[in-house]
Amino acid sequence: MRAAHFSPLLIVGLAVALLAGLPVASVGLNLFVGGTSATWSHLAQTVLPDYIANSLWLCLGVGCGVGLVGVATAWLTAMHDFPGRRFFEWALVLPLAVPAYVMAYVYTDFLQFVGPVQTALRETFGWAYGDYWFPDIRTLPGAILMFVCVLYPYVYLLARTAFLERASGILEAARTLGMGPWRAFFAVSLPLARPAIVAGVALALMETLADYGTVAYFAVNTFTTGIYRAWFSLGDRVAAAQLAAMLLAFVLFLLMAERVSRGRARYHNTTGRNRPLAGARLGGLRAAAALLVCSLPLLLGFVLPAVLLLKMAFTDGDAQFGERFLMLSRNSFVLAGCTAALGVLLALLLAYGARLSKTTFAAALNRVVGLGYAVPGAVIAVGVLIPVTRLDNWLAGQWEAWFGSNPGLLLTGGIAALIYAYLVRFLAVALHTVESSLAKITPSMDDAARSLGLGQGETLRRVHAPMLRGSLFTAGLLVFVDVMKELPATLVMRPFNFDTLATQAYTLASDERLAEASTAALAIVAVGLLPLIALSRQISRSRK
Most buried one in 95, 254, 310, 442, CB count within 10 A? Predict the structure, then answer.
């Protein structure tokens, strides 16, 4: 075995890990900053209990909802055969393209008093205002429903993979012991898939806690809305950081709970028969029930919102569509493109550095960088702004002392600080994709390249990079789409008079101009479909 050795790329990894950890450290340090007792006492006595209670209820409701929907659809499409199964296998991931805040805007317009549903009810039954009761979507249960509709694919994807990988041999043995389908599911399949299900639920809950647009629009007070209000309404960055620290504690608790829930349990296939079982054929009422169970999440999570967005965009749409829309699109594409390019480059350097070093230190650095994806955008925004603003003020002072003129805010006055926040948040997406693909390249190719006289840089450029071209494109696309949808960090950190498609949709929806918000929202959904098309094609080939 070849000994591990030092690589200069470890310096790059160390620098990136320090920069990725700086926002979290900045937020944590503000827990020990004094001088804000009045603000914190006011928050603790008025809104903090609501923040905690609503966040807990959101986690409970969303966790149960995505778990139920994700497991049911995964079990049906993985282990059964019914009309439309091949379509649902890939189509059930499409709701991931719709941000939760876009879903909230669409359903509010659809279900409000002047919307098509209540208007049709009044016209059909001759009702007037006050003659009937209709549920209000802009409530805590409504927010839970929005999150379940768009986040259940996290559980669906992981649970479906677990069911398929552990289907062979184990279920056959259960059936030979006389277990029926339901007993085999609860006694064998569900326990084996539990780690994957818990991981999917944890991902959904982290996305729920990180959301700002949905809860702000539905007037549900959570930590993300509190951070935004403390920063902009109260003007207290320390109070905002302290709220961000509490939100970060929630996220860390979820990560620890997910890890502890697994304990020492490990699940391995002990047979060479890894071919999935042929799906049990369903007919009659069972097939109709399976069709209904798979159709409802897809209908509520993608089909209906997409149809409504198209209708609003083509009938009303944004009154400023044209030059204004092109400017918003340009801003969004510049931010997403720069972040994606930098993210892929850094991910390639980090992954390649760990491959060359083969040390636990290099692997640990990459894991630190990967933790950024678990940190909500609002926390990262606050954690970035505090140290970067101080650096900005110091640079401006030094510039003025040296050249006699004040250049203004060099970092926070432009998009540099915002791109930094995006990289902290989404670099893990690119890193995981590149690491997975780089691990598939045999180390013997590195040895062969060195025997031909190629250095580390030449080996990366001439050997690994061409082989990783598809994975690098995928990684960049995933980061690009995530940045396009990101709202909390963009709202907090964007430069003055610099809007994106996400902020435009949020601003118009906040002004109750829902039809106008549909244009920007539809563009975000359309871009979000790009990586899902590739994922859907991969899923559709998984049975072949």
Answer: 95
